[in-house]
Structure formats: structure tokens, C-alpha cells
């Protein structure tokens, strides 16, 4: 018994007429008659009888009516629930070096307030900002450009020198022949140019081992003791050490923000933004 035939049968039970049923169901009278005959064939017993000018349901027809009403109600309720529980798909960008620290808290807070499904994109901040402008992303966690006030501030962080702990001894020895082996993000990263400028000012020898837009590549080189990298303090993995470098000037601070794109995100209201920022208040990083 298909759903459309059951809906037709319920209408027929209410009208007692093929003609009126056809009008209400926007079908021809012959189509209604065929549906009723098909139902009777499936049940194997008469569902209605002629009673004067009207057709009346038999006891079997009355039992089928009860089942049909339950089936249609269950179908409609399930459809309504499923249609309303479909999550909004949000295209969320985040630099790879924030993916293990900043991103989980953002996703957690946003998911508590509304049904969302996230499609994640991990790229450098400058690429994420371009994708926001082009409408390819809805939201992005990014490092705010210097002197910019765009985005919702999540965290004010600062740069640190990061390496395997064994490199700390070499730095501490202050051997003039020692050269800092650097593995840095690409030159669009604020820490790239500032770290080189700081080493030059302190007259420290250095050489670039590698540059990459992928945090995992820099982490891998640092873990093997092959390089020193520069990260935001909140992005430092637990198995790497923050180096003590008193001979060097401090690396710059950065603002990590949640930047909306051009799409209208009605669910991202002031209350949700305030809640998100409050969640990061407890994680403010101080040098």
C-alpha cells in the first residue's frame, strides 16, 4: 500500500464519493477508482459498499482507515522533524597552526547555540581572507592584519621561538659560529619578517632551512631537531619547547579574530559573539 493511495482512501472515507475525492485530490475520477480497487485487491476484502447514493466503509475499511491515518500522521511527523533538523552547512576556514587549539573551541561554542555542520578549510590567513571576499567561505579564524579592526577578537597572542628542547643548550652557549636553522611560515606571515629582523638586529647568524604554509611541516622539522620555528604562543604543540632567548627582542603580538564573510549568517548574533569571546577571555595569553 503506497502512501498516496492511503491519503486518497482517507479523503474517500471523509466524502463517501469518488467525484468529491477526485476534486479534493486533484485527480480524475477514474484514477481514484483505480486506487480504491488496488487497495481492495491488496487487502483481499471489500473496503466499501453502496449505501443509497453514498459509498460507506465496511468494517475492514474502517480498520484500514485507522491504520492509514496513523501511517500518514507518522510520515508527516517524520518529514517535518527531518526537514527542521537539517543543520546549516558552514564553510569555516582556519590556519593549520590554529587547528588544534583555537578551532575546537570555536566549533564547540557555535555548535552549542545552533545546529551547524562545518566544512573546514585549513589555509594561511591571507588566502582565507581572499576566499571570504570571493564568497567561498562563510567564516574564518584568521590573524588580523596590523592596524585592522575587522573581525570579532578572540585572542590576543604573541610570537615565540619554538624548537626541540636540545636546541636550547646550543642557543645558550652563544657560540658566535652557530647559525639559527629557521623553518618559517611563508613571508606573508607576520612572524616571518619580524623574526628575521630581530635576528639581524641582534647580529645573530641564521639560515633558512625551509619555508612552508603548512604547520605540520614546520612541526616535523622542529621535532627532529632540524630547525627553530616561530609560532603564536597558543599554537605550540606540547612536545615542543618554547625557547628562552633573552638576547633577542620580543616577537610581535597578534590578534586572532573570527572574520565573517559576505553571507548573511543570521544565527551569528551579538549574543553568540559575546559568548564566544567570553570563552576565550579565560585563555588570554600574556608574555
TrEMBL record:
Transmembrane segments: none
Keywords: DNA-binding, Transcription, Transcription regulation
Family matches, as Gene3D superfamilies: Periplasmic binding protein-like II, Winged helix-like DNA-binding domain superfamily/Winged helix DNA-binding domain
Domain HTH lysR-type: 1-58
Signal peptide segment: none
Molecular function via GO: DNA binding; DNA-binding transcription factor activity
Xref: InterPro entries: LTTR (IPR050176), LysR_HTH_N (IPR000847), LysR_subst-bd (IPR005119), WH-like_DNA-bd_sf (IPR036388), WH_DNA-bd_sf (IPR036390)
Pfam families listed in its UniProt record: HTH_1 (PF00126), LysR_substrate (PF03466)
Family: Belongs to the LysR transcriptional regulatory family.
Entry-linked PANTHER family: HTH-TYPE TRANSCRIPTIONAL REGULATOR LRHA-RELATED, TRANSCRIPTIONAL REGULATOR
Record-given protein name: LysR family transcriptional regulator
Lineage per the UniProt record: Bacteria, Pseudomonadati, Pseudomonadota, Gammaproteobacteria, Alteromonadales
Amino acid at each position: 500500500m503506497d502512501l498516496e493511495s492511503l491519503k486518497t482512501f482517507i479523503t474517500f472515507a471523509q466524502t463517501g464519493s469518488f467525484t468529491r475525492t477526485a476534486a479534493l485530490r486533484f485527480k480524475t475520477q477514474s484514477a481514484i477508482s483505480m486506487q480504491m480497487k488496488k487497495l481492495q485487491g491488496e487487502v483481499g476484502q471489500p473496503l466499501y459498499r453502496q449505501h443509497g447514493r453514498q459509498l460507506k466503509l465496511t468494517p475492514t475499511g474502517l480498520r484500514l482507515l485507522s491504520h492509514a491515518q496513523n501511517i500518514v500522521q507518522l510520515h508527516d511527523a517524520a518529514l517535518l522533524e527531518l526537514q527542521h533538523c537539517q543543520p546549516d552547512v558552514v564553510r569555516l576556514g582556519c590556519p593549520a597552526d590554529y587547528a588544534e587549539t583555537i578551532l575546537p573551541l570555536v566549533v564547540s561554542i557555535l555548535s552549542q547555540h545552533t545546529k551547524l555542520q562545518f566544512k573546514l578549510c585549513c589555509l594561511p590567513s591571507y588566502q582565507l581572507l581572499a576566499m571570504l571576499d570571493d564568497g567561498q567561505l562563510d567564516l574564518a579564524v584568521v590573524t588580523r592584519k596590523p592596524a585592522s579592526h575587522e573581525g570579532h577578537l578572540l585572542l590576543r597572542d604573541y610570537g615565540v621561538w619554538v624548537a626541540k628542547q636540545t636546541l636550547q643548550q646550543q642557543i645558550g652557549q652563544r657560540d658566535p659560529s652557530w647559525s639559527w636553522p629557521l623553518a618559517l611560515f611563508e613571508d606573508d606571515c607576520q612572524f616571518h619578517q619580524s623574526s628575521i629582523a630581530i635576528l639581524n638586529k641582534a647580529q645573530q647568524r641564521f639560515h633558512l632551512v625551509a619555508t612552508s604554509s603548512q604547520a605540520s611541516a614546520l612541526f616535523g622539522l622542529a621535532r627532529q631537531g632540524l630547525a627553530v620555528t616561530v609560532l603564536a604562543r597558543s599554537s605550540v604543540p606540547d612536545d615542543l619547547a618554547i625557547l628562552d632567548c633573552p638576547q633577542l627582542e620580543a616577537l610581535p603580538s597578534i590578534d586572532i579574530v573570527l572574520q565573517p564573510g559576505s553571507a548573511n549568517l543570521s544565527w551569528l548574533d551579538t549574543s553568540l559573539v559575546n559568548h564566544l569571546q567570553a570563552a576565550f577571555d579565560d585563555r588570554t595569553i600574556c608574555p
